[in-house]
Amino acid sequence: MAERRSAAGEALGRVSEWADGHLGLLRSLSAGLAAAGLLLLARSVRLTTKFTNAVDIPVEFIEKNVKLRGKIHHVTEKGLEVEHIPITIPIVTSIQRKWQSKGLLLVRLAGVELAPSGMVWLQKELKPSQMVWFQLLGREDLALECRVLVNKGRFLSVCLNEEILRQGLGRTARIEGLHHDSRLYWKLHKRLLRAELKALKKNKGIWQEESFSERVRDRISNNKCVQTLETVCELVKKLYLKAEWETCLEGCHVSVLHALCKI
C-alpha cells in the first residue's frame, strides 16, 4: 500500500516538474483553445443570426454560396418575399431574439426571366408559410439572386428556377452575381438550358405552337404578293372615291349655274 502511494506521489511530482518546465507551452495552448472557442461562438452567432435585410448578409456567405432556410410570405413582381429562419441553438438563439429586428428578404430566381404566367403559377404553387431553401448566388441592391429549392416529400426537392423553365413559364437569362467564367455558373446555366429545352420540345407555356388558322393567316398577311394586291386595291378604292367626289362637285356646279340663269 505504501509502495502504491509512493509511486503515485512520484508520478505527480514528475507531472508537476514537466508542467513547470513547459509553462509557456501550456499558456499558448490555453490561449489557442480560448481563441478557438471564441471563433466557434462567433460562427454560431452568425449561423443563428436572423437576416432581415440583404445588406446584412456577410459577403463570405454569398461568395461561398451558402444555403439558407426561409418561409414564404408573398410572391410579387419583384420576387419572393421570404422570412429567414436561422439555425436554432437554445442559449444563443434565446439571447439573440431579444435584439433581432423583423423584416423579409427579397429573393429572385437567378437565371430566369419570368413570364406573367410564371408569376401566376408561383402564386398558386407556393403556399404562405411554406418552407424553402435558397442558395445565395449574388446580391444586387436589396435583392438576392438565388437558386430556390422546395421540398416535395422527405427525400425529394424541386428547384423552382428549373421547374419554371420546364413548364414553359419563363426564359433562360444570365445568372447575376456569378462570374461568367466560373464552373458553378456554367453548371447551373446548363441545367437551366436543359429545362427550357424540355418545354420547347413539348410546346409548353410560352412555347406552345399557334393554331393552324393563325399560322395560315400570318403567312397570308406576310406574303409579298398579297401585300402588293392589298396596296393596289387600296389605291383603286381611293381613286374611285376621288372620281365620285369630283362627279358630285360637277353636278352641284351645274345645278348652281341653272339656278343663276333662271334668276
TrEMBL record:
Record field: transmembrane: none
> Do the record's keywords include Transmembrane helix?
yes
Where is this protein localized, as stated in its record? Membrane
* InterPro entries associated with the record: C3orf33-like (IPR042421), SNase_OB-fold_sf (IPR035437)
- Keyword match Transmembrane: yes
List GO terms (cellular component aspect): extracellular space; membrane
Its chief place of residence is membrane
Domain of life, source organism: Eukaryota
Its membrane topology: Single-pass membrane protein
Question: Which keywords does UniProt give here?
Answer: Acetylation, Membrane, Transmembrane, Transmembrane helix
- What name is this protein filed under? Chromosome 3 open reading frame 33
